[in-house]
Fold each of these.
Amino acid sequence: MEPNASNSVQPDHFLEITPMEVHKVVPPPHRSTIQKLKSRLKETFFPDDPLRQFKGQPLGKKWILAAQYFFPILQWGPNYSFNLFKSDIVSGLTIASLAIPQGISYAKLASLPPIVGLYSSFVPPLVYAVLGSSRDLAVGPVSIASLILGSMLKQEVSPTNDPLLFLQLAFSSTFFAGLFQASLGFLRLGFIIDFLSKATLIGFMAGAAIIVSLQQLKSLLGITHFTKQMELVPVLSSVFHNTKEWSWQTVLMGFCFLVFLLLARHVSMKKPKLFWVSAGAPLASVILSTILVFAFKAQRHGISVIGKLQEGLNPPSWNMLHFHGSYLGLVVKTGLVTGIISLTEGIAVGRTFAALKNYQVDGNKEMMAIGLMNVIGSSTSCYVTTGAFSRSAVNHNAGAKTAVSNIIMSVTVMVTLLFLMPLFQYTPNVVLGAIIVTAVIGLIDIPAACQIWKIDKFDFVVMLCAFFGVIFVSVQDGLAIAVGISIFKILLQVTRPKTLVLGNIPGTDIFRNLHHYKEAMRIPGFLILSIEAPINFANTTYLKERILRWIDEYETEEDTKRQSSIHFLILDLSAVSSIDTSGVSLLKDLKKALENTGAELVLVNPVGEVLEKLQRADDVRDVMSPDALYLTVGEAVAALSSTVKGRSSSHV
Amino acid sequence: MEPNASNSVQPDHFLEITPMEVHKVVPPPHRSTIQKLKSRLKETFFPDDPLRQFKGQPLGKKWILAAQYFFPILQWGPNYSFNLFKSDIVSGLTIASLAIPQGISYAKLASLPPIVGLYSSFVPPLVYAVLGSSRDLAVGPVSIASLILGSMLKQEVSPTNDPLLFLQLAFSSTFFAGLFQASLGFLRLGFIIDFLSKATLIGFMAGAAIIVSLQQLKSLLGITHFTKQMELVPVLSSVFHNTKEWSWQTVLMGFCFLVFLLLARHVSMKKPKLFWVSAGAPLASVILSTILVFAFKAQRHGISVIGKLQEGLNPPSWNMLHFHGSYLGLVVKTGLVTGIISLTEGIAVGRTFAALKNYQVDGNKEMMAIGLMNVIGSSTSCYVTTGAFSRSAVNHNAGAKTAVSNIIMSVTVMVTLLFLMPLFQYTPNVVLGAIIVTAVIGLIDIPAACQIWKIDKFDFVVMLCAFFGVIFVSVQDGLAIAVGISIFKILLQVTRPKTLVLGNIPGTDIFRNLHHYKEAMRIPGFLILSIEAPINFANTTYLKERILRWIDEYETEEDTKRQSSIHFLILDLSAVSSIDTSGVSLLKDLKKALENTGAELVLVNPVGEVLEKLQRADDVRDVMSPDALYLTVGEAVAALSSTVKGRSSSHV
């Protein structure tokens, strides 16, 4: 826009195209404080309105709905058919073939006896089948929670010197993890897991996958004296200081099975129809390797094997739980961390597959189901379990229709526990290592990392912090650092809200950011700002400084060009979703500061809550004049520009 | 609005009144990542653009400006005139008459030797006069910082058993307080003090005033065996368990002087012109009471007096600072808490009077000035000082024009230190107690508390938490609780952003909240939502659930009335000031979920940053179709309503 001889052309021009009546800003319909509190609490804790279906139902129906709400099995059970069963039995057997070797491997990852992994694949799936609302979740031990459980407990108790105490602490941690998960769900505080952002999780998972894989070097290389630490540096130094312990038979066997498993995984990833290749490969490897060891008596040639396993179902373990004593703090902390990590995985998996099949999963209810499953598990010799991503994917691909596939898996594990345990006596540890490595490699999601880099550099930094924190510091600290940075970013965003300078798009009454839409034009005498965030104590000081700087910049820029100073500061409050007492003071201060320079403060479109609070201020006129309140920026400019014209000409 | 026979009437009607061309949403002008990072950092750390004045100046001028920036005395010094000096000398002497008794009293409040209070009123004001940019701030010890310093140090070291160590720790804490304050300013992290909201401060101040007053019961009642605790309950029980120690002479004297001081305060509050009444009253009380004690030998009748004070200026104390040893943690913590509290008071006072006289105070620069003042103070036998609210108000009322009034005060204190110290030997402690009570009573701001109750109930709760926390738990814990709750509220706001359902105001192309503006009407086939916050990892889950519920509610409500389902979900993103990778996924998921039901996602007015991030998504079409992007809701509805009409009639 060129400077004009007469500076009043533009408002005139603007007026021509918008011959408008002015709409009044009215306060929202009155609601009492109690009503407001009620609706606020509802939005905060019941955003999904779980009681919606109960409305207007007769009492009997309400009871049935309530029972179905707490036990989803009552919802789908009655309609269960033979066709569904056919699908479920295939998928159940498929995940069982995966669950048995993984259960044994993950228990070893947590430094627990291998059989605990099988116990944990028997009871929890049954509980989940009754309480859970996801149809695809395959329940059992998972790699990351196993890793964290083991590494946190190992800091204070040695699993080799005091295996019984270690086991007791593991069950106690599981109890507290379950209690914590169920409470989160019951108290509707599920949003706490949202603070683990996707970027954090991707970095964390990749780091954990590397830590887990490094731990497998012990069994893959056949090392007997291995460090007890988890981080990259001590593990690698331990590996290369013990090269004499490497056993070529173990390395060869490990390498062959690793290649076989990775190939199987590759095939299934290329052709999802061939999901059974990767699903069956671990069990096939276990069987094949066991036969090999048995045939060649390989355990005498330096290949370590699992050894004798106890037969029989889960023994009760509620008498092993520690509710007091010196380890209570450790157990509660471990329960908290493993609980939140496994909950995050379980909920994310449930939501992913629910979205694929277009049904709803109630996050808070799922938390209660998973929590209860762990509480029951902790008293039946199970450690922390959740919905595992890889097994759930196999379950989904194998055509699972309902939670019955979990029951099938559980029954298969039961049969194994009762009759097949002697078969595992000669299973070499190296194959278990290869199975774990293959499973966790899928957690390193490089395309997602690239995508994050492309979209948001800050998220990428958070991801790197989680990744390097896990690798070089420790699993739980890496996670804490990443969460801390994410929350700091949110607070920084709140402290430094955006203010946009709006200009008019010629020929319309649309006002948009001057620095974005080049065709948008300033209107002389007006400074139009849009505040893009709630105004609260944390940002009033900034906003005041920033707005005063906008005024200052406007005056120095404009004065030289057009000899016009600000007559009106229009604040578009459409995006200010709430305000507190500091915010009200800010507007008061701004109004006073403007009056000193002879300008006027005009507010546009405050939302209901903001308008109410402004009107409740001690002296409303200190904050806003009733005639300086408009519904749209366009109407404000149209109504006020005649005044500007008057003032400008009197200046000349 | 009544149900219509034909559901296409409204879009038609809407089209009639807005014969519009459609404006394109364009990406903002290109800027590189470095440029963006630069401007983001500038907005975050330099919102007030302190280097603005340097732009386009010759080098010599730049040097002068820089010197003036760091030493504001160079700015106003050259223009200093005799007229200004006349004003400053009056105000300087006035605040000196207040500073001397208050200095002695506050040092006793901090359990330090009374003379340290005078030392602290000599050096720091001189430093501030050179470095500070406020013209009204009267610098010296303040009640709350003194209270906190004393109470935190007393937890580990007894001031009576080991007075030298206690003094060393006080100076060391002052050093760390100053270091912390200066670093906050230097690193431009001044916004950290913004997290102490006005509501928190009002509650905290009132609580601290009560705690301070309770402590004065010791000297006001003449009790010799007083509790060392600070909280309400132990202090009151200590007072009433020692009724035998009450001395009627002390009580009588205390009562008389308290009434006198409160009356003087009342007079000055009613008539600000008589500011000198309350300003002079403390010194008058000290002189009068000293004469009384001296004349009647009252110290022999149970009235305790200050006793002999050392003469002479501040001795150096840099050799008394503790930088290691077992008390380092205590000293750093005490420094942090007193530093942030005294900084908050100093900055708030500076800003208040700057706003009254319409000049600017640079918060970060002030922090450096106050910090440096405390660092220098800690090596010249001073404890934590800042700009005191009550004394600054007197300074302002007495007509202070520049920081020279601080110099005058300092010189007066110097004369006192050199020559007048013997006069204080017979000053009774009870008068000092009365002076403190009178000073802190002004910190209880009941009208402000009422105002907060009226405007924002949540802020009121925060205020109460701070108040009761300070009274019943401890000064620092009360503060921590209130800050924690304030931050939790912000996080909750971020986690649960508002979504508004918009409707058209008939006869216009304005769209406003349906639940606020009763005349606003839904447009059949459209669900128009406005998201009122940045979209990030902490709220995507909630937003998804909430939006899906809006859709669900729309369909159940509308279906019965008008047999129309949603054809378009319009998301007004004007208020979404930023988005992260989770937010991009949310839009992707929403688009997919809508496509399953045959509806389409339309985005309106994404701001520059958001638009860029959406376009950088892997496959843009997954997130938004280029033809489903509009500049205003009105244009989107106008352009799309013909489609709805077509679809609806084909449904029939």
Amino acid sequence: MEDKHMLMIPGPTPVPEKVLLAMAQHPIGHRSGDFSKIIAEINQGLKWLHQTKNEVLSLTVSGTGAMEAGIINFLSPGDRVLVGSNGKFSDRWAQISEAFGLKVEIISAEWGKPLDTEEFRTKLTADTNKEIKAVIITHSETSTGVLNDLETINKYVKEHGEALIIVDAVTSLGAYNVPIDEWGLDVVASGSQKGYMIPPGMGFVAVSDKAWKAYETAKLPRFYMDLGKYKKANAKDSTPFTPPVNLMYGLQASLQMMQREGLENIFARHERLTQATRAAVKALRLDLLAPDDCASTAATAVAPSSVDAEQIRGIMRKKYDIALAGGQDHLKGKIFRIGHLGFVSDRDILTAISCLEATLIELGYEDFASKAGVKAAAKVLA
Amino acid sequence: MEDKHMLMIPGPTPVPEKVLLAMAQHPIGHRSGDFSKIIAEINQGLKWLHQTKNEVLSLTVSGTGAMEAGIINFLSPGDRVLVGSNGKFSDRWAQISEAFGLKVEIISAEWGKPLDTEEFRTKLTADTNKEIKAVIITHSETSTGVLNDLETINKYVKEHGEALIIVDAVTSLGAYNVPIDEWGLDVVASGSQKGYMIPPGMGFVAVSDKAWKAYETAKLPRFYMDLGKYKKANAKDSTPFTPPVNLMYGLQASLQMMQREGLENIFARHERLTQATRAAVKALRLDLLAPDDCASTAATAVAPSSVDAEQIRGIMRKKYDIALAGGQDHLKGKIFRIGHLGFVSDRDILTAISCLEATLIELGYEDFASKAGVKAAAKVLA
């Protein structure tokens, strides 16, 4: 049905009406006093969301651009880096590191499984010459719905002492507790179309004091993505280059909404939606790709064995106007992913699960008790 | 007065209501078939606007990012480049070139004056070893309202044969005739918040076949800004990274509006608004920064000698809710700039000029006949 579209993918995520209407306001000059006030308010909100006293820098880039900025500002050609790789996005950070001439060592795990923290400990402990300059980790791997154990890996990085920890928090920030200052995370990158509840078009990078020290000697070439320029402008409630004014109107509105809800409530909601989705999928006797103990709170990947994933997505889209994500690369056609990231409520999960049940019945798959999915989800949400 | 703001700066430029409302639509998945159709329509519109058969690539970056992409994709460290420099933005392209290790030779002119085309001819003719790999030119220098003679400089580049011509058309594209294929321009960069009539947040790069050949051997590191990735995705009506979905809704709407108006009408309108503005400024006995024969159709810079530029801007902003741009760097406080770029009509110019007259009278500057500015502008517009 026209205009009845419901987004249940891990990005772009649903956008509140308040944010859409804020974005529809006419832009003002980005060098005006009025816009400086908006920048100042946004910067405070970003620090709150990131649980940090350090600067959080806003760039006109996608999440990949934010992650690239997080890598190239703190390293030099030939630097040795460890990259955790267990999905499409973590693979990409290895590609970026290679494109910029870093010496990349990949610690990989099967797609759908979490990274083995012990492998990081072993590599870092063995590096007595302190040659490893950075460990690059995807916290929530959006392509598989796996949450890597960032806290433990970061502990080993801290024991190493020299290496920076560079984190892709694109689908964990605002969906899972990432206490940047408490954990001492050095570089944390994220993108607007995820937990931020605004459309795509902005990337964010939080930077620690230790990372800024590395910045001073880092030699990879940069200009548009030179975070030093953003830091300098930030101090004057400004930006080095023209910012995406209307997206920032939206960000101002969404940060206000998030602050009214409160960080703990936001994290609890994402945890609740995740558990409800997983309970429902199990009750429907479908397989979950990621194990329970490393479930991302951004998306749940389902790997149905006796019913076709693409057929499920097709009916969900055509008949119920619900967009689910498919699998990427070698998981294409083998999984579907239910997003529960950002502006998603308990009602949305029950809606998606009941439509999923109806879809399964239509496809002749009835290997579950009537209303089993909705019941299981309702029990978690109650 | 609240919400009565009128933008008369050379970016962000005024945005039509149709575009604002298009942007307020809920995003859809950027990997969906429906979004592919939007990408396809936009790509056709961009080719039309750029007067080219070649690909025009859309990036989530500001104009500076687009220009950086236009430089780093086609050159290698140590490459010799000629950079024309006569304002804030052309200066920036020299800085980018230096940041990426190019051998930069600057051909400069005073701010407010056009580049001397003969200097380019001399340098290019003398380069019999064909060491010059690119000539980097800002077509319309937004900071001073000067239009450089791109057509003539490009002729000398074509006679040279080896060098690419890389053009910042940020405030000329959609405001002045830039026939990319007819002139054989190799790389043309622009930004959304200008002639495109949409808010900031997107950058565009048109690339010639000759430039794509240079791309194959160009060695500067790149990933997020790797235009080859954009070209490959473009061929499938897709994007390599998450695009700014809502801005693209706006771009789709604005390209439709532009196509209804027609390229010739758009250029004629910008020329008319420019001439009307300049005639009015002269009638008000204020000095124009740029000479008549190199006037940018994006903005007119006024350098008042006996009345304070910042006072004029202050009254225009506070009393008449009209935002004019100030001077940048050493021109700060010495000039003000009237934008007539993008979604600006004859009525807007008469409005701005009559308010400017009232402002001058309030400041005790009455060195002109009553209504001289409006009369002069009206005569051009009639």
